[in-house]
Design a protein that fits this description.
By secondary structure, the chain is an alpha/beta fold. The protein has one domain (about 10-259): Alpha-Beta Barrel (TIM Barrel), CATH 3.20.20.70. It is built from 7 helices and 11 strands. The longest helix has 17 residues, at about 60-75.
Length: about 260
């Protein structure tokens, strides 16, 4: 089984195909995974590997480690496009998420004022006011919507909450109108005897209607790029993905980034 990728709180910088040179901030344990989803394609592996023993990093630890790395990079004359909250799970689960974001913005302004701050979130905690406030303050508020069809999104993302639904998350995403980037992973395949394909006509039509309701400033559509914990998943090739992107743009008028 694919296991966690990041064994530290601050990692990189790495090259992100969507964001450029990125310094990662992992608010999950360094020895386990904590997430409100258990996505079939997650590069960090399934939640079954456990949360580990290290626990979540403290706000003070994140601030100290991030400042040390930013100072090191600045003194070395390094290039940094973005500071990205990602890692071994859902960053907004951290109890001090809003305060950590504020610390990060302050440190960014001190050391790399032209650098963007991004959060990659699965959208499950955007109903919390503290999470919403924090996401509205970052430069790139990147929120997941892998399908607008309830059965499909539950199969792909495998949410922990039995109350999660496509309709509920789309309704919550509306509150970020113009201040969010929606990220959609597209693939096909089979898992547990069930066929999965969020590129078929029904799926694309439903996504288009959802994007129109949400009105994000940008849509990112992408496909598999790394090993996945679930076997039998198939990457959507660049030409097909580009065609889907063109269709979405024509129907919505929203900027599309295809990777």
């Amino acid at each position: 089984m694919q296991t966690i990728l990041f064994h530290s709180t601050i990692f990189g910088p790495i090259h992100s195909r969507r964001l450029g040179t990125s310094l990662g901030v992992n608010l999950s344990p360094a020895d386990g995974k904590v997430c409100t989803f258990d996505c079939l394609y997650c590069e960090a592996g399934f939640n079954a590997q456990g949360a580990g023993r290290a626990g979540l990093p403290s706000r003070d630890s994140v601030r100290s480690l991030l400042e040390a790395k930013l100072k090191e990079m600045r003194d070395a004359g390094s290039v940094l496009d973005v500071i990205t909250f990602s890692g071994n799970g859902e960053p907004t689960m951290h109890p001090d998420f809003e305060s950590v974001v504020d610390d990060t913005l302050r440190l960014r302004d001190m050391y790399f004022p032209e650098t963007k701050v991004s959060v990659l979130s699965n959208s499950t905690r955007i109903g919390r006011e503290d999470v919403c406030r924090a996401l509205l303050r970052v430069d790139n508020n990147i929120l997941k919507l892998d399908s607008a069809v309830d059965g499909t999104i539950r199969v792909i993302d495998r949410p922990n909450s039995p109350d999660f639904s496509a309709a509920s998350v789309i309704g919550q995403l509306k509150r970020f109108e113009g201040q969010a980037i929606i990220q959609t992973m597209m693939f096909r395949g089979e898992y547990g005897g069930q066929v999965i394909d969020n590129t078929v006509e029904e799926e694309i039509a439903a996504l288009i209607e959802a994007y129109k309701v949400i009105k994000p400033r940008e849509i990112m559509i992408y496909s598999l790029d790394r090993p996945t914990p679930a076997k039998g998943l198939v990457k959507i090739e660049a030409e097909e993905l580009a065609g889907i992107g063109e269709r979405i743009h024509e129907a919505t008028g929203i900027k599309i980034q295809v990777n």
